[in-house]
Automatic annotation (TrEMBL):
Organism superkingdom: Bacteria
Keywords: Hydrolase, Lipid degradation, Lipid metabolism, TPR repeat
Molecular function GO terms recorded: 1-alkyl-2-acetylglycerophosphocholine esterase activity
Protein's organism: Ulvibacterium marinum
PANTHER family in the record: PLATELET-ACTIVATING FACTOR ACETYLHYDROLASE (PTHR10272)
BP GO annotations: lipid catabolic process
Pfam families, A to Z: TPR_1 (PF00515)
Protein name: Tetratricopeptide repeat protein
TPR repeats: 569-602
Matches recorded under PROSITE patterns: TPR (PS50005), TPR_REGION (PS50293)
InterPro entries linked to this entry: AB_hydrolase_fold, TPR-like_helical_dom_sf, TPR_rpt
Coiled-coil residues: none
Length: 619
């Protein structure tokens, strides 16, 4: 059970703000901090002392839950359930591409051991109707004992686990007793409905949390025709998940592993897949989305991408061209304001539901049931209402993407109309994704976009923030030139110069004219697929021209490189090489000498001296 709260702590260069311990409100307004989410389990594993008779009596009411009548939970979904039965299956599988450590105190271990990475898989799915009692919540609860491998969970082991859980997590005994007896909707191992294939939602839980932390939502979605698959948030080498880059990467790979086994599920449609994540799971799933273009939609429930944006920004995946699928953000009070990921999404149709009366822990059913239900009656009612809205909007978004196949306009009208909500409880923001550069240019060619400069003007925010990615603007300029639209290309370059003031234009125009700059730009872009007029791009273009028999043309690029980078000894050495190939040995010597004057490293010092000697011999 992972219960964590986000606070402003620094973890090296990963997070400036990160989640440390999850808190929940109590009636006095104080904040109760939950301890390490797996201490109770570790204590359970390490314990070799039998529970005392007195302890057994103290917990007798809980230990006999299996014979008691079903209880009513403090949390339920009042939104209409779907027409499908709900099945649940769990199994353990190994990811043989990664290792995992079990210590000697783990169940069944007499010594430390390294094994393949264990993955506990939980699946909720549309099922056939069956005459069988549904699961009780305790059947989810005790799955925590099997998160790093299936074990034989005897009654004594259950007793010990419960005792340690109560001691460590400070859960109210009566609340736990009541919730463990609650009838859920899923029927374990029910026959799957195979009349069709159903869309899939891969769910990533919060820090160190269980696969079933949002079991209520998972059951609800399964009843509406979705397969939901999840695994617990388990660390890279042991059960506890570290708050670190490797921890986030580990969870992303776990979600990708779940993706890889979808074809083993009898009614899962592997061509219709969305991913969702709560808290830390809403950072890990951003990495997964960036690496897997076959994912059709992304859902972030108070996603840590808000808090830990620096991590994503410094990763190899902060290329917004990777994100063109629909996205849904559901945010509680603490996650509504600083939204850099949402703000910078360019090509995704994005929908945001803010719930300002909710706290972070109100977005997962497990935390409300076990921790939030001890609040005042009024506050519990707020949590229940809010959780129902979470279920409502997640289902609406998935239906819009997979069932109704709505575009942005129709999705907004049908499911995310801000005029049809209670603004004191719910706030909705949406924005339409821009067309990718190829699609935009195609629309321009076909006359559907009359003027590209006017289109670009429409993307500039009131604060003069340039929304359209610079890399794609460069590609647009190049595409226009390649299609003999020289005037359009020129207009786009002028717009580029006027609006991206920190770009290369002013420094380049100190040495060449605007038309020459456009000519240089197009050639550098052709050979580098981008153009910032940096040393390496110019040198690469010049070398290709020089070695391709276009020596005179290459010299223009070599010379501009020295003008833009006058302290770069490599630029002068390569200009010397350009002249050397043209048999202009006098100018070659001048530039080899200039290279030596700039204190080159040993490699270029040796090369410059060698070619200086050769050029003298060529007099």
């Amino acid at each position: 059970m992972g219960v964590t709260v986000y606070s402003s702590q620094t973890f090296g260069d990963l997070y400036k703000k990160m989640l440390l311990s999850l808190s929940y409100p109590i009636s006095t307004g104080a904040v109760r901090t939950i301890s390490s989410p797996k201490k109770f389990q570790q204590s359970f594993y390490n314990s070799t002392v039998m529970i005392s008779v007195i302890s057994r009596l103290l917990f007798y009411g809980i230990l006999c839950y299996c014979t008691a009548m079903a209880q009513e939970s403090s949390l339920s979904i009042s939104e209409p359930y779907g027409n499908y039965g709900v099945g649940f299956q769990t199994f353990n599988i190994l990811d043989k591409s990664r290792s995992f450590s079990l210590d000697r105190n783990s169940p069944g271990m007499g010594s430390d051991k390294t094994i393949f990475r264990p993955i506990q898989v939980c699946v909720w799915y549309p099922a056939e109707a069956v005459d069988k009692s549904p699961m009780k919540y305790d059947e989810y609860f005790f799955l925590m004992a099997h998160e790093t491998g299936k074990i034989d969970l005897s009654k004594t082991s259950r007793d010990s686990l419960l005792e340690n859980f109560l001691e460590t997590e400070q859960v109210d005994t009566k609340i736990l007793e009541k919730e463990l007896k609650v009838n859920m909707r899923a029927i374990e191992n029910a026959a799957p409905n195979t009349t069709q294939k159903f869309p899939v939602l891969i769910y990533g839980p919060s820090w160190s949390s269980s696969a079933y932390e949002n079991a209520l939502l998972s059951e609800f979605l399964a009843s509406h025709g979705y397969v939901v698959i999840s695994s617990p948030s388990v660390g890279p080498e042991k059960r506890d998940m570290p708050i670190s880059r490797i921890g986030v990467e580990t969870q992303a790979r776990d979600m990708e592993f779940l993706f890889s086994i979808l074809d083993t599920l009898p009614n899962a449609d592997t061509d219709r897949v969305a991913i969702a994540g709560f808290s830390l799971g809403g950072l890990s799933n951003v990495l997964m989305m960036a690496r897997n273009s076959s994912v059709d939609a992304w859902i972030g429930i108070d996603p840590s991408i808000h808090e830990a944006y620096d991590f994503f920004e410094d990763s190899p995946y902060e290329d917004y061209r990777r994100f063109s699928k629909p996205t849904l953000f559901i945010n509680s009070l603490g996650y509504m304001n600083e939204l850099p990921f949402y703000d910078k999404l360019v090509y995704s149709d994005a929908y945001m539901v803010n719930l300002p009366q909710l706290e972070h822990t109100d977005l997962a059913s497990q935390f409300i049931k076990l921790f939030g239900s001890n609040d005042t009656k009024e506050n519990v009612a707020v949590k229940v209402k809010g959780y129902n809205l979470v279920a409502k909007y997640v289902l609406a978004f998935l239906n819009g993407v997979f069932r109704d196949k709505l575009d942005y306009r129709d999705m907004t009208r049908k499911y995310f109309d801000s005029n049809q909500i209670d603004p004191s409880f719910t706030q909705i923001k949406t924005k339409k994704g821009l067309p990718k550069v190829e699609a935009l240019f195609d629309r321009y060619i076909k006359g559907k976009v009359k003027n590209l400069v006017s289109f670009l003007d429409s993307t500039v925010s009131k604060e003069q923030h340039m929304i359209y990615p610079e890399a794609d603007l460069q590609k647009l300029i190049y595409l226009a030139a390649q299609n003999n639209l020289s005037q359009t290309s020129r207009e786009l370059m002028a717009w580029y110069k006027s609006n991206y003031r920190g770009a290369f234009h002013n420094k380049v125009l100190k040495h060449i004219t605007f038309d020459q700059m456009l000519e240089f730009f197009l050639e550098v872009y052709r050979t580098n697929e981008k153009c910032d007029f940096d040393y390496y791009q110019l040198n690469h273009t010049a070398q290709l021209l020089s070695m391709g028999g276009k020596g005179e043309e290459s010299l223009k690029y070599f010379i501009l490189n020295t003008q833009l980078h006058p302290t770069n000894y490599q630029a002068y050495f390569n200009l010397g090489i350009g002249y050397f190939r043209m048999d202009d040995f006098e100018k070659a010597r001048i530039n080899f000498k200039k290279c030596l004057e700039l204190n080159p490293d040993e490699r270029f010092k040796g090369l410059a001296k060698d070619f200086l000697s050769k050029s003298r011999d060529k007099k």
